[in-house]
Design brief:
Strand order of the largest sheet: 5-4-8-7-6
Number of domains: 1
Oligomer: single chain
Largest sheet: 5 strands, antiparallel
CATH architecture: 2-Layer Sandwich
Order of helices and strands: EEEHEEHHHEEE
Number of helices: 4
Structural class: alpha+beta
Number of strands: 8
CATH topology: Beta-Lactamase
Amino acid sequence: MAIFNQILLKDSTRLFLMPKQELFFSRIASVNMMDAIFWVNSAAKIIWVNDAVCSLTEYAREELLSMNIYDLNLDLARPQWSKYQADLEQEEFLIVECFHCTKKGQIFPIELKIASVEYEGQKYNCILLRDISQPK
């Protein structure tokens, strides 16, 4: 999982940094993935997005980085997000289906895969957002 310029791996007891070469490959993969990936901090503020998030939500990167998760027009109320945060204390990750309304008003079902990580005493969430309106 990537946070800023460092990659964290989780084993059964601790988080540790990956070697620089693995950081390079992980960064390339996350930036160029087709699935939308974004990071939020413990206050639900968006702190990083890949290009797929911009494309899917129809927001510019600068707009997204000034928003929090509630501003993304997800069918996701603040109390639900608080519950998911509490659930992540017990689970490695969550999978949530909800709806998204783009900046231009298009509404479609999405799947969120949410994983939580703690780094230097701060909690972060990595969220993969995928359009599930088209059958596979």
